[in-house]
User: Fold this.
Amino acid sequence: MKIFERFLHIDRRIIFVLIFIGVALPLIWTLGFNLEVTENVESVYNLMEELEPGTRILISFDYGPSTKPEIQPMAIALMEQAFTNRIRIIAIALWPMGVQMCNEAFEKVSAEYPNIEYGIDFINLGYKVGGMVTINHMAKDFRSTFPTDGGGNPIDEFPIMKGIKNFDKLGCVISLSAGDPGLKQWVMIAHDTFGKPVGGGTTAVQAPIMLAYVNEQQQLIGLLGGLKGAAEYELLINKPGFATKGMDAQSVAHLIIIIFILIGNIGYFATRKKDTMKS
Amino acid sequence: MEILMHRIGIWIGVFLTFAIFSFLYKDNPFYKIAEQIFIGISAGYWFIYTIYNILIPNLFVPVTTDFAHNFILLIPAFLGILMLCRLIPSIDWVSRYALAVVVGTTAGLFFKRYLQSDVLNQLTATMLNPFASSNAAQIIGELILIIGTITGIVYFFFSKKHEGAFGTTARVGIYFLMVSFGAAFGYTVMARISLLIGRLNFLLGDWLGIIKP
Assistant:
């Protein structure tokens, strides 16, 4: 029985070390666990695939460095798909650091697409404070909400912005979101008020909340939830990247956590039985 | 020079990463240093960011370049100044007026949006005929959705004692809630491990060069 009591008092630092090793090793030596694409992720992929070449979409970068490992792979995968299909991207940020996240993703992806030109195929309009109010204002008067791009140049100078007065000429809206303001506000305004298809990606923490909007009403067309969502998207566009590599480490870490949950429960039930017999 | 600065940046990142991780062993001066640096830099960064990316482009530039069309911006600017009165104890009550405007407009703006998106559309999405589909898995899924929604709502109805058939329904609702908590826990674990993966990718890739970043 002593061993069961030990199960209940495992030093948590042992768990930390095992998790650390369990995450580090698969990053060095790839294990290649199978990954299956879920319907929610495929819906976002199909939404993008169905757009005609030349269509303009809006991607909102509503996250910062603290959630970069989860969301940046989504941004890169979405940009790659868009540029492959000649879809043009209008990027904005409802989070201040979203601007840098967008620039980093564009810098990485544009290196592989030398024909992509800033102002024609892509534009970064920068950060705007206000959250839901800003989205609402954009839907009514896009140009007064973002009179210039992130560098301070008037948007009239860029061909990609020609004719954009509200959401009407956008193929869809994608929000990559780590909280508020983010995907929920886009659903509320862009879809529920103005009827624009909205897709998105969120951190894993936010995913269970946002999944409720992927419903019959199609408030959200689909959702990329956390690193797994990003890995599935990389699989769909056939360009394995950081997320795919990270999923091996993720799986091993989950396995270790499950084992410790089982050990804890076995210890708990075994000692409880002993206590009951004693009493 | 650029490469040198890049290397220094990586070493600072490595030191701070290990300093924060050291808290997992126990609280120590390295962790405290990293924590204080983070707080100080965050405060300074946001202060400058607010001035250059919010106040200057949204207030100072419009008001100074085209006052006739932008004088209305002085109202939110005035409310902002009222908010700062919190810093002076003798007149801190003045900030409540600005706060009242914020609370009032937020409530008014959000009420309709939330009612539409979180109540009406969500309810409509649950009002479906589960037997309309020929796919057995879809029928079962939609039945679970309907039962889960109804029993979950019943659980939160506290005006009647949870006993008899009503209590049983509420109990089923608890099970659905437990499943949703479990799913949320699983997703949270995934999120935290993802952050660790990001850090280890930095340590093993950018710093040690063992893996391709």
